[in-house]
Specification:
Blueprint lengths: L12 H22 L2 H16 L19 H14 L3 H17 L4 H12 L11 E2 L4 E2 L4 H5 L10 H19 L2 H9 L9 H16 L10
Antiparallel strand pairs: 1-2
Helix pairs in contact: 3-4, 3-9, 4-5, 4-7, 5-9, 7-8, 8-9
Amino acid sequence: MDKPSQKPTAPPVENIGRSLVALVVIALIAFSTVLTPAGRARLLAWVSIVQSAFQTPSVDSLFVARPSGLTQEQSRAAHWIAKRYRVSQGAVEQIVGHVFQAADLFRLDPYLVLAIIAIESRFNPLAESSAGAKGLMQIMADVHLEKFQDLGGPELALTPWANIRVGATILREYLDRYRNLDAALRAYVGVGPTGVTEYPSKVMRERSRIVAAAQGRVLTTTDD
């Protein structure tokens, strides 16, 4: 004998109430994010990533792989970086390209700049610190507002090419001021030219690894 069919039961009222509360909380978080400058910058950065998946990328797009035009040495460095930091190969190739352009413009060692990016953000272009430092080279956009204004405005702080350009400018200024690489790196990390920090040694160790990779050699890649 067939069992009598059961009528579907309505969900308990308390479950509906909890769902409504959750929706309200999510909506409030979303609105609070959009209404702050930092929130809008993060939102625009994420929107650019999503859009790049559906649109033909522009010349400056970071997030879509395309022929990079890198030299063999630069390509080897990019491949090693992508593997070590678990970032897409196409994105890293474009970061490396931006770094070499900025390094040439500001008379810097490009592998030093890549090492700074590695220590500062682990090649995450959307990285933000609790202190407000942003992007690949962890720039304080409010402190260096004028440098971003020259490129289009502080809203570009999370844009890789602009972040690298400003970071390279800052590093060049410190090198010219202190005439010493360790002092410039201490100043860059914010402890002052005579401050106590392991930052310079960390940067130089990572630089050695990237240079070795670019030359087809392999050094130890254990995290510091």
